[in-house]
């Protein structure tokens, strides 16, 4: 499989407001390092999961991939062509090929437009189909996400969360993208509805040959849905491997802890042992060396000084002792 | 349903005023301009429900035929500030940065002065008359609309459907006009209806002071001013226009409040 979307050395910082107290103390404005030197490749036709705790930079990565944020450093390449220095026409082409499904099904649809208008707008603005065929294509898109065709005449507030998420998916599909970035697309939904939407993603992928980047904190979904998984911790990828092998034998102590933290329904396998020690450190002031060392059971003196580079241990892992 | 009562009452009053404005001849018992020297300053009676003025003109008829001017004042006094303010709020809210800072300070500056004082100052400089009053209202009144609009735009701007529109590669003009504006404008429109009450009060205040509508024109403030010299002997001359101003203020306030309640439900 070849890389369709490549990310190399991506960094993104958010600068906070410098308070008066900061100025008095001559402190610089606080900086959140949302992404630090993130590199990964997304292969054509695969589903890549990105997991991590809240605040680890998953959503920032998603938003950088669709250029809602401009990265401070690093490159994003689509089919080997870098995004940087693209003219607006090339950028538009890029935006056609990489689409996004948002987390909040209630906020991601314009409440003043009917579903039909929302979908038709995409088709008309980008001239994806001739004007005469727009209505027919809207029907096709609704069929594709298993919504009744009369949904086109209704407004978003008339739909449930799961149905709205299907509308959001249909909107992304209207662009005929190669890649869909799904940023926690089911975490706002009821568990019963989650399965339907996840299965829709699986079905669409096999029918349309989509490449999917699925961002979530739900490890069971990742296992069910993805081919490969990237584990993020405080803005960095710490492990990136094939899903089945990684779940069976996680290399990075953080991944091991995450997998232990998955709630078990079988009484005998329940454990009261804390999976990870302590709290997630503030991304305003990340630990030196390996960012995970204050919480890591394997941590040694070296870990607080020297940041581990990615190295191959069957697949790329960033740990001195993996 | 009981929640809708203020709105319905407000709309009823506004509807009645609109009827007065459109077809005053149906409602006014007399010609508002005809002198009746047999009934100078006649007190209220079955023949003249609100009495007559110093020229024997029927006060009720004059008040009804003034509704057209006053509703026109309410409309023009709101529409121009609304258009200017909404445009500025849309631009400053969307772009932010230095343009937001410049207009923000300008809004602070205008808001520092009492509204009426500033409007009177503008009219005093420009000269009395309705057109100059509208200019003065637009110069001062846009601030509240711009602030309201800017706040709404900031809220809508951070919504995911706007992020989605960006990912879909829509132009900024399309995002602002087709996506943000329809979502941001409703509270502004509801405020505009409430604002009409204030503008009617302001318009009649200026009319009373001789700075707005000019005397031959039947306008409630002007009518009250007509009666001010006879306040002790014929207080009814000012009564009917005064009642109408109160009624109009009440009607627009109720309608505006009811409207904003109604719009909140769906949000």
Defining key terms:
heterodimer, A: 322 residues, alpha/beta, 6-stranded mixed β-sheet, 12 strands, 30% helix, B: 267 residues, mainly alpha, MetI-like fold, 10 helices
Q: What report would you give on this structure?
A:
The complex is a heterodimer of chains A (322) and B (267). Chain A is of the alpha/beta class and 322 residues long. Helices cover 30% and strands 22% of the residues of chain A. Chain A has helices spanning 20-24, 58-65, 88-97, 115-125, 134-144, 161-174, 191-208, 219-225, 243-248, 253-260, and strands at 3-15, 31-43, 47-51, 73-78, 81-82, 98-101, 179-183, 211-216, 228-233, 236-242, 311-312, 316-317. Chain A has a six-stranded mixed beta sheet, sandwiched between helices. In chain A, α5 (134-144) crosses α6. The model of chain A has no long low-confidence stretch (mean pLDDT 85). Chain B is mainly α and 267 residues long. Chain B has one domain (57-266): MetI-like (MetI-like fold, Orthogonal Bundle). Helix content of chain B is 75%, strand content 0%. Chain B has ten helices and no strands. Chain B has helices at residues 5-22, 24-27, 59-95, 97-112, 115-126, 130-157, 160-167, 172-208, 220-227, 236-266. The A-B interface holds A 63, 66-68, 91-92, 95-96, 99-100, 102-104, 107-113, 121-122, 125-126, 157, 168, 171, 175 and B 159-161, 163-170, 174, 178-179, 182-183, 266.
Number of domains of chain A: 1
CATH fold description of chain B: MetI-like fold
Principal-axes geometry of chain B comes out as elongated
Strand and helix order of chain B = HHHHHHHHHH
Widest sheet: strand ordering of chain A: 6-7-8-3-9-10
Portion in beta strands of chain B: under 5%
| CATH class category label of chain B | Mainly Alpha
Distance between the termini of chain B: 18 Å
| CATH homology group of chain B | MetI-like
CATH superfamily of chain A: P-loop containing nucleotide triphosphate hydrolases
Overall average residue pLDDT of chain A: 85
What amount of the residues of chain A lies in strands?
A: 15-25%
What integer is the average pLDDT of chain B? Answer: 86
Determine the number of helices of chain B (DSSP H or I, runs of at least 4 residues): 10
Structural class of chain B: mainly alpha
């Amino acid at each position: 499989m070849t890389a369709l979307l490549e990310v190399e050395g991506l960094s993104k910082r958010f600068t906070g407001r410098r308070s008066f107290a900061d100025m008095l103390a001559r402190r610089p404005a606080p900086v959140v390092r949302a992404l630090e030197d993130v590199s990964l490749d997304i292969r054509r036709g695969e589903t890549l999961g990105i997991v991590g705790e809240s605040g680890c930079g998953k959503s920032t990565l998603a938003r950088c991939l669709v250029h809602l944020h401009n990265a401070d450093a690093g490159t994003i390449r689509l089919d080997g062509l870098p995004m940087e220095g693209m003219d607006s026409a090339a950028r538009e082409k890029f935006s056609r090929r990489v689409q996004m499904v948002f987390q909040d099904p209630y906020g991601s649809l314009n409440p003043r437009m009917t579903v039909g208008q929302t979908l038709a707008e995409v088709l008309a603005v980008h001239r994806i189909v001739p004007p005469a065929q727009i209505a027919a294509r809207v029907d096709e898109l609704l069929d594709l996400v298993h919504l009744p065709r009369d949904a086109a005449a209704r407004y978003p507030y008339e739909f449930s969360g799961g149905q709205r998420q299907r509308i959001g998916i249909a909107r992304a599909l209207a662009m005929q993208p190669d890649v869909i970035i799904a940023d926690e697309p089911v975490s706002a939904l009821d568990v019963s509805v989650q399965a339907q939407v996840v299965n829709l993603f699986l079905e669409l992928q096999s029918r349309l040959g989509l490449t999917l980047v699925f961002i979530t904190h739900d490890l069971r979904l990742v296992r069910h849905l993805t081919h490969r998984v990237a584990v993020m911790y405080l803005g960095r990828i710490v492990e990136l491997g094939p899903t089945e092998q990684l779940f069976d034998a996680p290399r990075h102590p953080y991944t091991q802890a995450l997998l232990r933290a998955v709630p078990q329904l079988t009484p005998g396998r329940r454990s009261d042992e804390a999976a990870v020690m302590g709290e997630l450190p503030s991304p305003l002031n990340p630990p030196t060396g390996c960012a995970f060392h204050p919480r890591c059971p394997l941590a040694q003196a070296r870990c607080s000084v020297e940041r581990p580079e990615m190295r191959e241990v069957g697949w790329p892992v960033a740990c001195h002792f993996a | 349903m009981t929640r809708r009562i203020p709105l319905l009452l407000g709309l009823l009053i506004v509807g009645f005023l609109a009827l007065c404005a459109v077809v005053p001849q149906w409602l006014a018992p007399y010609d508002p301009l005809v002198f009746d020297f047999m009934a100078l300053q006649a007190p209220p009676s079955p023949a003249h429900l609100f009495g007559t003025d110093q020229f024997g003109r029927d006060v009720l008829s004059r008040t009804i035929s003034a509704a057209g001017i006053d509703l026109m004042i309410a409309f023009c006094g709101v529409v121009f500030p609304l258009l200017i303010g909404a445009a500025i709020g849309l631009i400053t809210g969307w772009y932010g940065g230095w343009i937001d800072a410049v207009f923000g300070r300008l809004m602070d500056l205008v808001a520092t002065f009492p509204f009426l004082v500033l409007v009177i100052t503008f009219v005093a400089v420009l000269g009395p008359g309705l057109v100059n009053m509208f200019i003065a209202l637009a110069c001062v009144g846009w601030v509240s609309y711009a602030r309201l609009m800017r706040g709404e735009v900031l809220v809508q701007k951070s919504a995911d459907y706007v992020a989605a529109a960006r990912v879909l590669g829509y132009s900024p003009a399309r995002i602002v006009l087709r996506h943000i504006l329809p979502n941001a404008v409703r509270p502004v429109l509801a405020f505009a209806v409430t604002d009409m009450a204030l503008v009617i009060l302001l318009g009649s205040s200026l009319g009373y002071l001789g700075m707005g509508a000019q005397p031959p024109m039947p306008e409630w403030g002007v009518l009250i001013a007509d009666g001010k010299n006879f306040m002790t002997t014929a207080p009814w001359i000012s009564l009917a226009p005064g009642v109408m101003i109160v009624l109009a203020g009440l009607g627009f306030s109720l309608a505006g409040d009811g409207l904003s309640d109604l719009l909140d439900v769906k949000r």
